[in-house]
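Late entry, written up from scratch paper. The run itself happened at the end of the previous shift, but nothing got recorded in the book at the time, so transcribing now.
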Amino acid sequence: MYRHSRILIVLPFVLISLFSGAQPLNKKETFTRQDTLRGSNGPGRDWWNVIEYDIQITPDYSSKKITGSIQILFTVPEDCTDKIMQLDLQEPMRIDSMKQGNEPLTEYRREGNVYFIDFGKRKFQKHQPAEQNYTFFSISVYFSGKPREAVNPPWEGGWIWTKDNRGRPWMTVACQGLGASVWYPCKDYQGDEPDKGASLTVTVPDNLTAIGNGRCINKKAGKNGTTSWTWQVKNPINSYNIVPYIGKYVHFADRYTGETGEELSLDYWVLDVDSARAAKQFGRDVKRMLKAFEYWFGPYPFYEDGFKLVQSSHLGMEHQSAVAYGNHFMDGYLGMDLSGSGWGKKWDYIIIHESGHEWFANNITSNDIADMWVHEGFTMYSEVLFTEFYYGKAAGDAYLQGIRNNIANDRPLIGPYGVNKEGSGDMYNKGASLLHTIRQVIHDDSLFRKIMRGLNQEFRHKTVDSKEIEAYMSRVSGKDLSKIFDQYLRTTQIPELEYRLNGQELNYRWTNVVKGFNMPLQLMGKPGSWLYPETGWKKITLPPGTGIEQYNPNFYITLKKGQ
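Output as recorded:
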């Protein structure tokens, strides 16, 4: 996703307040049982693993209702019986019936946005590693209702029923944070992605096109002037990333040869009236994006499913292999440079940012949205790396230093776990600033690139906790970065270097920091000049031509002159 709400962008002579970014996930400071059920891997979830979703829906534009079904394939890690399964489906959507094979499932109850299915004495056998195939189990769920409508998509998510500029139906969904259970039953938990992917069949009037993630594997004419479109993703995918796009779309395509020599299909679906503008904008930035990000992060993670941009009525979302695009074919963010540096208007913000999520959010996914800085901090930093790749290191530095002006330091980046609550919206700007600071500490761009690529290999198609990312970066860098992560992720305090200067004699220490904080700091005078502050006073004689106030500005810190 892109920028969080309430950010302030300082441009020459202009102060712009942008209410643009992540959906409000959970604004509460006190939490209910529903929050815990939604946000934790509780006893109704932890005994079964999703293998595949097969979703079929028929949306009705006039009534704003959906009817559909889902087959859920799953395995169990241990033999078990007497189990109760939690399925999530948000009110006012409802489950009409369920069955396992041909046997109806009748023992279930609803509690708010959760259904509990009592399997009684049914036995579930764990997968045996020696077997060629999984021991699969499946349930079929039939559902219907009028899903929550997005009031201000994508920031306040839900199903989007709108019209294009010619008055024709245009439909999609944006539901990160809010959850995929706003429109279909699922295990609505980021930590369990279907191992073998998902399929989505959408039945629409035959004068409209329905697009989904991955590749179209079937298009079938139905009754009463309808057509059913079936799309399939072969890779693991998070439930909130599975979406339909329905409208008067036209298609054009291209191909990209990646760094491994493999060809990646590029598919573009836009409204028929916008095809010329789209061809120009997409043709310029998509291949540039892929070249830069494959350099920094490694191969695009979903070659099997292809890459798509799909025009949307809202600004954008990182829907896996089917990125939502609504930037109106403008450079920058709706024509603005969010950094104020000038570099942010050299490229289309939504193409770059949302595609960056294919590596961070879609390839590497946080188990809990409390750790969503892993999605947004790294992806915002991808904007810096893209800028650097094409315009030079000074340009990337300027872009990063510009977006730092948008940091509010209102709450820690990491939120409370297990209740579906994000941390601060600073996960974007401050998350990127943290990574840039760590890059300076590592002081080896080749090694930093190795870490970025290594993360996407080590955690390929996996879900993670922040601590796993932190530990990996410390291990591969050969530096203990734990206190730096604790400082910037878990507090709102910005490290403050307090100093006293008498001629060239410098006394210095860190203040406003966590216990044990000892991040080194590079000075910009004599090459190779570094300070190694701790929380106790230290003393050094500065080399000639080196001043304390001329530190490397890519470190996110403040200075305080002591008495």
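Residues 337 and 344 are 5 Å apart (CA to CA).
(Scratch paper discarded after transcription.)
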